[in-house]
Write a structure and sequence with these properties.
By secondary structure, this protein is of the alpha/beta class. The chain has one domain (5-151, 210-291): Spore Coat Polysaccharide Biosynthesis Protein SpsA, Chain A (Alpha-Beta Complex). The chain has helices spanning 33-44, 58-69, 101-106, 127-138, 220-236, 248-255, 278-291; strands at 5-9, 48-53, 74-79, 116-120, 123-124, 146-153, 164-172, 175-188, 191-195, 201-203, 209-217, 260-266, 271-272. Strands 1, 2, 3, 4, 6, 7, 8, 9, 10, 11 and 12 form an 11-stranded mixed sheet that branches. It has a two-stranded antiparallel sheet with strand order 5-13. Helix 1 runs parallel beside helix 4 (127-138). It is globular.
Length: 301
């Protein structure tokens, strides 16, 4: 078994939700969604977690999460800051927000030298996803550009309280070919549909595989991110709201056949608190899992 690292992107605020939803209790004993992700990751074989956060929430984050998790797994922090740029680049006047998820993951490069998974802090992925990705990373040469992602059936990822955005995966022989971002998906009259203009609606197969931002990389991906970030800043570094995404190098590498991305399909239900109305449903689902013995209660004993 290799050393494996879980990188958790937790620097963002939930704009639609209206607060720091990453720290909102939802479990039977006050657990947050992130508790379940780290619990499942540790059980699957991950032995280190790196939380990418803003420096101003470190104390609150450590109090709610880090303090008890350090008893069970190696915990480290990386801070995403707008001013953390490669040499020869400076922050344009008026820019306040950091540079996106790509820069967030780069911030962990100096403290991660193992294969790693990247997830969102506020998404519940399920135990199967972590088992799948850990197994794949354990069987991949660290020096290669052979990556992976966990995909979910669209029907298992929807909210009853509003539309969602999902990455529709184009897969061939088990490998990712491309991702199409669909920004407005919802059930209408029992049928899953999406729209690009809120006028014309197209139906989607409920078993469409979608990305929920659970990716597995070897350490080679840090170099790709750093190189592409320099290129991004050269082109768009004067903009005040441009974002460099963690998947930008991957899309380039897939098209040029410099990388492969094996798609691992999970049967678990994904859920998260996209809207405030989602919280009671998430709480009820986690209580049901505890009642059925899927998770111990309290989670960490």
């Amino acid at each position: 078994m290799k050393d494996l690292t879980l990188i958790v992107m937790a620097a963002g605020m939930g704009s639609r939700y209206g607060g720091l939803k990453q720290l909102d209790p939802v479990g039977p004993n006050g657990e947050i969604i992130l508790d379940y992700s780290v619990f499942d990751a540790k059980k699957a074989g991950f032995n280190k977690v790196v939380f990418i956060i803003r420096e101003d929430i470190k104390d609150e984050f450590h109090k709610v999460i880090g303090a008890h998790m350090t008893k069970h797994i190696n915990v480290e922090y990386a801070f995403q800051k707008v001013e953390n740029l490669p040499s020869d680049f400076t922050v344009p006047e008026g820019r306040e927000k950091p540079w996106g998820t790509g820069q967030a993951v780069i911030s962990a490069a100096d403290i991660v030298d193992t294969p790693f998974a990247v997830i969102n802090a506020d998404d519940f992925y399920g135990a199967e996803a972590f088992k799948l990705i850990a197994e794949q990373l354990n069987n991949t040469d660290n020096a290669t550009h052979d990556y992976c992602m966990v995909g979910y059936y669209l029907k298992n990822t929807l909210s009853d309280n509003g539309h969602v955005s999902r990455g529709q995966c184009m897969i061939e022989n088990g490998y990712m070919q491309s991702i199409k971002e669909l920004t407005h998906i919802e059930r209408k009259d029992g049928i899953i549909k999406y729209t690009e203009d809120e006028t014309n609606w197209l139906s989607l197969d409920e078993n469409t595989i979608v990305s929920m931002n659970m990716w597995g990389f070897t350490p080679t991906y840090f170099t790709e991110l750093q190189n592409d970030f320099v290129d991004f800043l050269s082109r768009r570094g004067t903009e005040l709201k441009s974002e460099f995404y963690v998947l930008d190098p991957l899309n380039r590498m897939i098209k040029s056949k410099q990388a492969t991305v094996r798609t691992l399909e999970s049967n678990d239900r994904w859920f998260g608190v996209t809207y405030p109305e989602d919280k009671p449903e998430v709480t009820a689902e986690l209580q049901k899992m505890a009642d059925n013995g899927v998770y111990p209660t309290p989670l960490w004993g």
